[in-house]
Write a structure and sequence with these properties.
The protein is mainly alpha-helical. It folds into 2 domains: 1-231, MFS general substrate transporter like domains (Growth Hormone, Chain: A, Up-down Bundle); 232-457, MFS general substrate transporter like domains (Growth Hormone, Chain: A). It is built from 20 helices and 4 strands. The strands form 2 sheets. The protein has a two-stranded antiparallel sheet with strand order 1-2. Strands 3-4 form a two-stranded antiparallel ribbon. A hairpin with a 2-residue loop joins strand 1 and strand 2 (66-67).
Length: 457
């Protein structure tokens, strides 16, 4: 899943956290981690914003005097991932080396400034750079939560914080999606985007003033990590190269990306217009319905992980989830006379089925030696987020099947175009199902791969 934690040193909480005032011991750690989680919610909201304003983007920007087609809208949204994806590899190293306080402050500022640029410019390229800045800052959000949790909270709370942050991020994006959708209808898209930047500018000083890298830093210790305790850039790239020599890690990452494609394509960009075109939903109903996939992911991710751990099986849940995802999407596309309630229920269970993607991160860690575990998680997340290119593939199909209709300076794509483009999503789920047969079952135990052992001579 995009946003999972790469390459963060998970240290035991500092013993000093158990000493001192009750506030420092019991309250401040949760406040600090909560602020980082709030940033994660904020960046997730910014990620899905373009899906609410596709026609507005077509009218607002032009390239070479031509109003935007679906492909250019897809690229504009995907510029977020053009920064986010490569940053998944070094982000943990940067967090370890410079500390979450500095990194998160700069990251939130990048998101806020990128949002202002995106909402105020009339140039497509400048808007794309705004999305790029948002993606760059967003790359540090989830990792920052995990880094702070590993330092400030007891180790037995770490898994809970990881899962809770993911769920809060998705639910926050759902609610924000609804609020922004309503604001867009009332005051316009540019004003709404600019208002959303205020959240980031408010978070910047709060994070800087409140967040500390560790409890010791409250007593005046240095706020920067000791570089001697951090992996060097040379070591990082050596580990990445080593992990990528394992075909199972590649296969696992591709399966995860295929499973996650419907989440990146439908709720993040094209879902609202699809529902308005195919089912004649209002913009308000479509905005609310499309978030049901995110709700399914929020509830399904911890559930599928729990089931996989208890059953001590990895491949079987992946197969079931991928096959169900394919069947549910085909039902969603072709079952006649679906009501708004039916659509919401189907989208919810599509999100639940797609959430089996989280199992792939466990598979990645189990297919390498312990020394490469963090790197493999980073590589897996890198591969997953690379599949955001399907936002552009979907758009290309819309343009190829466009019937030439233009209304109010925006290209209008018919029901047949959307149905054709949507075939990409069940196809990716079916391909994930077929590829999962080639994946080795780990039985929830680490598999020592000799070729991945960095100590092997």
């Amino acid at each position: 899943m995009t946003g999972k934690a790469p390459l963060v040193q998970m240290n035991e909480p500092n013993p000093s956290i158990t000493k001192g005032s009750t506030f420092v011991t019991n309250v401040l750690p949760w406040v600090i981690c909560g602020l980082a989680a709030a940033f994660y919610c904020y960046e997730y909201l910014l990620r899905i914003t373009p899906g609410l304003i596709v026609p507005e983007l077509q009218r607002a920007f032009s390239v070479n005097g031509q109003y935007l087609d679906a492909t250019l809208v897809g690229h504009l949204s995907a510029f977020y991932y053009y920064a986010y994806t490569p940053m998944q590899l070094p982000v943990g190293l940067l967090m370890d080396r410079y500390g979450p306080r500095w990194i998160l402050t700069i990251a939130v500022f990048c998101c806020a400034v990128g949002t202002v640029i995106f909402g105020s410019t009339t140039s497509w390229w400048v808007a794309a750079m705004g999305r790029f800045a948002i993606g760059f800052g967003s790359a540090f959000a989830f990792v920052g939560v995990l880094k702070l949790a590993s330092t400030w909270l007891p180790s037995d709370r770490f898994a809970m914080i990881s899962g809770l942050t993911t769920t809060l991020g998705v639910i926050g994006a759902m609610q924000g999606n609804i609020i922004l959708g309503d604001l867009i209808q009332k005051i316009g898209w540019r004003e709404t985007i600019l208002y959303s930047s205020y959240i980031g500018f408010i978070l910047v000083p709060i994070i800087w003033l409140v967040v500390r890298n560790s409890p010791a830093h409250l007593k005046g210790a240095a706020t920067q990590q000791d570089p001697s305790n951090c992996m060097s850039y040379k070591q990082l790239w050596q580990e990445i190269r080593t992990s990528m020599t394992n075909p199972q890690i590649w296969l696992n990452g591709v399966i995860a990306g295929l499973l996650w494609t419907p989440v990146m394509v439908f709720p993040e960009l094209w879902g609202k217009l699809y529902l308005q075109t195919i089912h004649n939903f209002t913009a308000e109903d479509a905005s609310r319905a499309v978030t049901m996939i995110l709700l399914g992911v929020a509830l399904g991710a911890p559930l599928t992980g729990f089931i996989s751990d208890r059953a001590r099986r990895r491949r079987l849940p992946l197969k079931i989830g991928a096959l169900l995802s394919c069947i549910l999407m085909l039902s969603f596309m072709y079952y006649p006379n679906l009501t708004l309630t039916h659509v919401k229920i189907l989208l919810f269970f599509i999100g639940v089925a797609a959430s089996v993607e989280v199992i792939c991160f466990a598979i990645g860690r189990e297919n390498c030696s312990q020394s490469l575990a963090g790197t493999v998680v980073a590589v897996t997340n890198f591969l997953v987020s690379s599949f955001a290119i399907f936002q552009v593939v979907f758009a290309k199909i819309l343009d190829w099947t466009w019937n030439g209709q233009i209304v109010d300076q925006a290209k209008i794509y018919g029901a047949q175009s959307y149905q054709t483009a949507m075939l990409v999503l069940p196809a990716t789920a079916l391909l994930a199902f077929l590829l999962s047969f080639a994946l080795k079952e780990t039985y929830c135990r680490p598999i020592v791969v000799p070729s991945l052992d960095p100590n092997k001579k």
